[in-house]
């Protein structure tokens, strides 16, 4: 009888400790960001530093929309034109369309990246694109999402959001 009692205590203690143990590494955080006139849905996205993110962009609008994430709004000729600090600077980003890997440069022109930072533009009705990247710890804090199509008119019309990186 004492052996059974100790076995039961050991089993309960083992289950308790297993339940309290820190979870293993989380899988990728999957986010779908819908873009339409003139908003992002959801308007606020929270991610965790060190975690892989699979961000799927869907243009549900009737116009071309883009996503840029950064800090410190940049203007050209008095119009919003992007950010001075690009969230994606120094981050390796992979992209998929229809479950197949694509070159992320297909989503933007090289001169755009040099001039404005990393951005993805999707035509209306185009197939969704998934960006795959790991959020570095040095990106913790609050960033802005924005669409600057039509010389910043989309930004002015409210196509803005928050991108929050938790440490």
Quick overview of this protein structure:
This protein has helices spanning 2-20, 110-116, 149-156; strands at residues 29-36, 39-41, 44-48, 52-59, 65-76, 79-86, 94-97, 100-102, 120-122, 129-134, 141-146, 160-166.
Q: Could you tell me the mean pLDDT?
A: 86
Q: Roughly how many Å is the radius of gyration?
A: 21 Å
Ends distance: 51 Å
Helix content: 10-25%
Helix/strand/pairing category: alpha+beta
Strand order of the largest sheet: 2-1-4-10-7-8
Classify the beta-strand content into a percent band: 35-45%
Number of strands: 12
Order of helices and strands: HEEEEEEEEHEEEHE
Poorly predicted parts: 13-24
How many helix segments?
3
Major sheet: 6 strands, mixed
Task: Describe the global form.
Answer: globular
Description:
- The protein has helices at 2-20, 110-116, 149-156, and strands spanning 29-36, 39-41, 44-48, 52-59, 65-76, 79-86, 94-97, 100-102, 120-122, 129-134, 141-146, 160-166.
- The protein has 3 helices and 12 strands.
- The model is unreliable at 13-24 (pLDDT under 50).
- The chain has a 6-stranded mixed beta sheet with strand order 2-1-4-10-7-8, with no helix packed on it. Strands 3, 5, 6, 9, 11 and 12 form a 6-stranded mixed beta sheet that branches.
- The chain is globular.
- Strand 7 (94-97) and strand 8 (100-102) form a beta hairpin.
- 20% of the residues lie in helices and 44% in strands.
């Amino acid at each position: 009888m004492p052996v059974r009692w100790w076995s039961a205590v050991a089993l309960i203690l083992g289950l308790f400790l297993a339940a309290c143990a820190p979870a293993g590494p989380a899988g990728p955080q999957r986010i779908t960001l819908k873009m339409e006139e003139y908003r992002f849905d959801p308007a606020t996205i929270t991610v965790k530093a060190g975690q892989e993110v699979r961000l799927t962009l869907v243009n549900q609008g009737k116009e071309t929309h883009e996503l840029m994430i950064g800090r410190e709004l940049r203007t050209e000729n008095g119009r919003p034109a992007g950010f001075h600090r690009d969230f994606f600077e120094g981050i390796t980003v992979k992209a998929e369309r229809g479950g197949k890997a694509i070159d992320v440069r297909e989503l933007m022109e090289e001169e755009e990246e040099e001039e404005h930072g990393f951005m993805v533009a999707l035509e209306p009705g185009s197939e969704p694109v998934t960006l795959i990247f790991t959020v570095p710890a040095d990106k913790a804090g609050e960033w802005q999402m924005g669409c600057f199509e039509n010389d910043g008119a989309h930004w002015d019309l409210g196509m803005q959001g928050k991108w929050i990186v938790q440490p």
